[in-house]
Amino acid sequence: MTGFQAPERHAQLLAYAQSLNPPSGWKIEVSGDEIIMMAGPSVIHQRNLLIVRRQFDANCPDGLMPSENTDLASPHTGKLRNPDLTYIPLDTVELGGDQVPAELAVIAVEIVSPSNPENDLVGKVRDYPQMAIPLYLVIDPREGTLILHSEPGGGTYRRHWTGKFGDAVPIPAPFSFELATAELLRYPG
């Protein structure tokens, strides 16, 4: 579906998705008229995320905190996404609740799922700039590739950096470092 839904419809769909009780290890996301359920990640996924998170943590400016599998909500766009890793302001916890306003996220990091790669490579590339998330890092262990999307505007990301495992990813402010990727693992097969 293209375009935006009415805010009332967004609210109804988000409320319905939040009322679902997925099995342990599953997560729920909403994009437009779709509710997406995903199984928990593999050990390779978790290891790659740890390698990336440690580097972001070491370069995280004061006032931000890491958060894994946090619901980022954007009611005006009808989107509820749950990135593998995001960084949000420390004072976000004062808002309470189970969701964080998406526009507060500084970056979204995703490790591509082998069972549903289109969600990370197409759906979230479409949704994250609409949700006003300034940086989106996609790590694809299927192909051994990386894409850093930046400069959202007009509903899309205007800049894209691409590389492969082993390349240094230039992570801009507020982190301002080069992400080392030589230790990332590819999925078998």
Features:
single chain, 189 residues, alpha+beta, tt1808, chain A, 3 helices
Notes on the structure:
The chain is α+β, with helices and mostly antiparallel strands and about 190 residues long. It has helices at about 5-20, 45-60, 115-130; strands at about 25-30, 35-40, 65, 70-75, 80, 85-90, 100, 105-110, 135-140, 145-155, 155-165, 170, 175-180. The chain has a single domain (about 40-180), classed as tt1808, chain A (Alpha-Beta Complex). About 25% of the residues lie in helices and about 35% in strands. The strands form three sheets. It has a six-stranded mixed beta sheet. A hairpin with a 4-residue loop joins β4 (about 70-75) and β5 (about 80). Residues about 1-5 have low confidence and may be disordered.
In short:
With 189 residues, this protein is of the alpha+beta class. Helices cover 23% and strands 34% of the residues.
Topology summary:
Blueprint: H1 7-19, E1 27-31, E2 34-38, H2 43-58, E3 64-67, E4 71-74, E5 79-81, E6 85-89, E7 99-101, E8 107-111, H3 117-130, E9 135-140, E10 145-153, E11 156-164, E12 169-171, E13 177-179
Silhouette: globular
> What is the average of the pLDDT values?
88
Characterize the biggest β-sheet: 6 strands, mixed
Number of strand elements:
13
CATH topology-level name? tt1808, chain A
Radius of gyration: 16 Å
Helix proportion range: 10-25%
Return residue spans where pLDDT drops below 50 for at least 5 consecutive residues. Answer: 1-5
Tell me the span between the first and last alpha carbons.
33 Å
The side-by-side strand order for the widest beta sheet comes to 3-6-8-9-10-11
